[in-house]
# Entry
Amino acid sequence: MDTVMMGLDKNLIGQKLEKDVYSETGILVVAAGTYISEKVYQKMESYFINNVHIKKKETKDKKYQDYAVIKSTYLKNVDVMKTVLKEISLNGTVDDEMIMDMTNSITLHSQKMGYFIDCIHDLKSADEYTYNHSINVAIYAMLIGSWMKLPEIDIQYLVLAGILHDVGKSKIPNEILNKNTRLTDEEFAIMKKHSHLGYCIVKDMENIPEDVKKAVLMHHEKLDGSGYPLRCKSKQIPKFAQILAVADVYDALTSKRVYKDKITPFETFKEMSKMGYSHFAPDVLMTFLKNIVYYYVGFKLKLNTGEIGEILYVSPLNNYQPLIKVEGKVIDLSLDKRYSILEMA
Ligand SMILES: [Fe+2]
# Structure
């Protein structure tokens, strides 16, 4: 592993420890994998810890190159998605090969997920929402699958399910799909048909596993039975559909749409926690919220005061009020109510 030993310093707050930290008398002070918070820092200081191991920073060039590769993969997939959906709506045919190529191009980079998250946030487009959204859901579903330690093949199928989950929207009239105001009840009833329409499109595709087809059909089911189209409850909803549901809602809330603005990931964590287990499978939601927060450490943001800051640390126990570094001072949003996040920069 590419680690480097650093002298204990306040600048390390927000970074992850790559090795266990022991006191001189052999007591385990902090375990590997812990993020250095103010408290963790103070604990290490009280044990007179001098050095810790953190991840070696990549050079700017290497970072730039990696990001460029992921960005071109992401943009290419958005373009292919456009072609796939147009093809379905015009001819009713799905190009299996294109779908499989997209799946492979995403899973190939499963070790670089941080860059995919950067792409999702950098390249959001209200006009291209349907295409970006399918790729984003595939990426978030892959993340959840790997955090849940699912087998490799399931993770591959989750990416496939994410790509396909909204193919039924190709059969929804454009005036409803692209309407720039909220849908009426009648229009929403038509929109809700997309998951069943999607299932009808994929059900005869030989290369698509049954679990993926069911996930396409059931990605809008909710645990309390208030979802659609089958109004299934808890365990009647297959795992892949439960995972897509979390990925889908997270991307929808953090995306700008023609009729609504996006909300920040932190407000979204709060919203999804409120929706809670009546909507989502507890193990899936907990795994997602616990892990996704770490991807936002280092993200730039704008506060309500106009100041630009950087996410320093997000506690899994209070994931919507992070610690923020602003020009030499550290603001704890859970304690200092004068501040709030206006937008992610
Ligand atoms: Fe959907």
Q: What stands out?
A: The chain has three domains: 3-55, 60-262, 296-344. Residues 296-344 form one domain. The radius of gyration is 22 Å.
